[in-house]
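Deliverable D4.2, example record:
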Amino acid sequence: MYRILRSSILVVALSLTGWTTATAQDERVIDEIVAVVGNDILLASDVDGYVISTMNQQQIPYTDDLWRQALEQLVNDKVLVNHAKRDTNLVVSDQQVEQMLDQRIGQMSRRVGGEAVLEEMYGKTVLEIKADFREEFRDQLLADQFRGQKLRSIKATPSDVRAWFSRFPTDSLPTLPDIVQVSHIVRLPEVTDEAREEAMEIISAIRDSVVAGRLTIEEMAELFSDDPGSASNGGLYEDMALSDVVPEFAAVASRSPVGVFSPVFETEFGLHFLRVNARRGERIDYNHILIAFDERKSDPDKAISLLTTLRDSILTHGARFEVLAREFSQEEMSRSRGGRVSDPQSGEQNLYIDALGPLWQQTLAGLEPGDISEPSEVQLLDGRQAYHIVQLHERVPEHTVNLETDYALIEQLALQEKQATVLSEWMDRLKRTVHIEYRGRASDLAAATN
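Output generated by the structure prediction step:
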């Protein structure tokens, strides 16, 4: 049995990959080789870290079977790396590796309380920590590319979809709720002078405190920021493309010097200030604080009036809904699609009406396909209150799932199963061409299952 000594690199490595939140210690740790894959080794600590992550994410207890599954997953990863290195068409740039390192170092730093704490725990500078993991992360990116090539080659044909669906007895098929396809034009209520002045007082006081060093921007963001996507982690966004933020925000972020607090500026979300932490071309890491305008002090009259005029232009004067949506809607996600509303995760335009919420349901009640609603209130995905007019394109009543109306959903499920099957068979073939040897605890567990 081979045994080696490792220092606190073990815990930091696990933390960098998101596997554990344990604190690094100065004492040395005895570790054990549990598998050899090609020229690479797997350590018991690697598997333990993967198991801890799975237990935390899925809220499940430890079992020997869970440990075996983790071991096999890590062996598969090593096999993929082995084959990916043979593929001369795969290229991972230094910039890709650096971006991944920056993301993981940032995650670890936030977890332990900052880069200075991380360096003290590890006994090395951030640059030295990156050097320790640079090749490991390069291997991971290569393996991801190699797996991605295979995934993209797997398609679900119409016959695959029909065959998958036919396996289920008719009397066991689920019932789906009402489905709708809709478009909308969104207008935000006007910010009053009172609401703007109140927000400016709050954010100016916060910025003054941060600049004076009384509290950090991270601490202030957790206490006061109204951005639900970043407040809990100190206002931090990493590897954000400037094209993914609203133009007013991008204009400030693109010219703000690294490490300097920007002046207060306004976007449709409220008042902000930011600090750019790193810039890589058109991608940045930054912290920011948002103070939203008090919606109770906003004025909806102009929004409702404009929506009423737009509705009249469509119904009376033949204006096209999608053209007006692109010109006047203030909801970014749907505006670029002519007002078409889709699921933000899947992009699917068939929407379950039960999942849209009570305000949507109230607006859609009584509408027939082709109808356009009167202006009504809506809550946007980011939590803001707004007003919109809605065009109903299609309504499918509650029904038993079937290929005619639910093909996209069935196709997705069939594809997922086919991908899992093909990838499993592919991995079995790949493993036959790589030397794999289990040792120590891994060989004991393997023997126990046979």
